[in-house]
Amino acid sequence: MGEPAVFTYEVQVRWGDSDRLGHVNNTRFVEYMQEARIHFLTTELAAAGARPGAMVVRKMDVEFLRIITDDSGPLKVDVTVQHVGTSSYTIRHVVTDRSGAVCGTGDALLVAFDVKTERSRPLSDAERAGLGRYLAPVSTG
């Protein structure tokens, strides 16, 4: 079994993303992750034959490791899948600046959602296939 794929998305640091000190606001950091995640889901699930269904973020943990400034970009957001369950999955985002320094990481727990019943739904086989290509191996140590 080969290494899982990594989905990489490039994000520009926009003029309005930073505060008066020239640092990118932490909420924008999370928006960069969201932007990469949406592109990952729409392109990769479609490539696996799945129509991306409704998803909701149930939980997100973010670790801010290094400030991002106006001059840090373009940023790179690498997306991998950490876990796939019956109706949920966890996506890891790693944000690096133009020099390759890791600025932060974030894990988002997403739940497949049925908009009619307003309840979770099982992931389809096509969704599982799209996510599985990016599934990181479980560490045992």
Explain what the structure shows:
With 141 residues, the protein is of the alpha+beta class. It has one domain (7-133): Thiol Ester Dehydrase, Chain A. Helices cover 21% and strands 35% of the residues. The protein contains 2 helices and 6 strands; from the N terminus they run βαβββββα. The chain has helices spanning 26-47, 125-132, and strands at 7-11, 55-64, 75-84, 88-96, 102-114, 119-120. Strands 1, 2, 3, 4, 5 and 6 form a 6-stranded antiparallel sheet that branches. β3 and β4 (88-96) form a beta hairpin. α1 (26-47) packs across α2 (125-132). It is globular, with a radius of gyration of 16 Å. The two termini are 20 Å apart. The model has no long low-confidence stretch (mean pLDDT 90). This is 4-hydroxybenzoyl-CoA thioesterase. GO terms for molecular function: fatty acyl-CoA hydrolase activity.
How are the SSEs ordered, and which strands pair?
Blueprint: E1 7-11, H1 26-47, E2 55-64, E3 75-84, E4 88-96, E5 102-114, E6 119-120, H2 125-132
Antiparallel strand pairs: 1-3, 2-5, 3-4, 4-5, 5-6
CATH level 3 topology:
Thiol Ester Dehydrase, Chain A
Q: What is the C-level CATH assignment? A: Alpha Beta
Can you tell me the CATH superfamily?
Hotdog Thioesterase
For the termini, the CA-CA separation is: 20 Å
Gyration radius (Cα, Å) is: 16 Å
- Mean pLDDT across all amino acids: 90
- Helix amount, in percent? 10-25%
User: How much of the residues is beta strand, in percent?
Assistant: 25-35%
Tell me how many strands there are.
Answer: 6
Q: Which architecture per CATH?
A: Roll
